[in-house]
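User: Structure please.
Assistant: Input sequence and predicted structure:
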Amino acid sequence: MNGIKESIPIGLDSISAEEQNATFKKVIFRIVPFIFLAYLLNIVDRINISFAKLRMSEDLLLSDAAYGIGTSLFFIGYLIFEIPSNMYLKRVGTRATLTRIMVLWGILTILMSTVESTTSFYVFRFLIGVAEAGFVPGVILYLTYWFPSFLRGRVTSIFLMAGLIAGIINGPLATWIMATFDGWLGLRDWQVLFVIEGIPAVLLGVFTWFWLVDKPEQAKWLTAREKRIVRLSLENENQTTGQERSSFKQVFLDPRVHLIGIVFLCIYSATNTITYWMPTLIQEFGVKDIRHIGLTSSLPFICALISMYLLCRSSDKHLERRWHLALTMAVGAISFMLLGLVQHDLILSVVLLTIGGGACFSAATLFWTIPPAYLSVSAAALGIAWINVLGSLAAVVSPALVGTIKTQTGSIYFAFSIIGALLIFGGITILLAMPKRLLKEQKMKVNLQQDESNSLLVSAENQK
């Protein structure tokens, strides 16, 4: 919360900085821990397949290519229902939407333990994707209902940090469950993994109904004065957006929206490849023990946890998004492109994977500060969903592509070089396609500077 005093929007002269600080602290403590835990469970349940694959491939006779196809099918289901889910959220509210999503994905994760063939593996991965559709863009949209831009970068980073915490704990947790509970209730190690990790999502989904409210004006835990502070903070920011881009046609006819989505596609190609292929890549390094693979897989997420916080704090402090994002993507690209050159050196391979993975996950967080800063309030639901759909196309293509490359060549390093090239392309695209003058923060900064200049002129006149 440090820094809010220096970032108070204009138009709130009747509300003190201390009041604003206290109000948003209250909102943060109510909302952020909950969405953090929800996203942590979401990522754990989404990526546990990468560790289950190490064992279920033997039982189901899954090739690397078939595993890649199954992973892609998850995102096909996700993409088909992404925009409908986010648009339906506007009708029924965030509380009902998140309750539905979490309960369904938890149940289907548990049912993954019943998979008996490649076909049923494909079916369940598709259905889990359908169930999860709209979760991340729904939360990103939800944050715009509660937090102005001078807080949203840090709040978004905390939310997305849950994915990194999930990455840190998922490897050791998944491999511990598989090693410890193999044979529990007559289930194989990978089956137990799905059952144990699916139950918490169902329970938290039910809790969602009783904990969340859709808008600040519905929050019984805020006083009337606090609701007004939140409302005025958001209204003041939205006055700087200029012409509304609210209609369906305006969102889809705006080329910048599509270019933002392409940038996310580049980032998502990297994070998705790391998420689903990192255990296999670590095996390529020469690590064979499943527990050691789990521990090593935590390192990129630990790196990302630190870099994400520092980068998002810097981005909020300077109200600068584009260069923070582009340079972070460049670091990830260089690290991935060098992996093939050091493949016979375990230490250097792990170091490059750690730096590259950390940079890519940090880039994903920095990226999500840009769409809400560009889109108008009325266009945000559709725009954010569409950007997420465009980006998530990478998740359909990249797992199958990596699996095919590895099956055909016997090596995964060429695939990581391609991902590095995509990151370079995405970094250049965001700099060229999104001038800083179009972002709300820059408009606010200009307004603040103009106000300060006017105040100085008035003060000088008074002194005369």
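The two ends are 40 Å apart (CA to CA).
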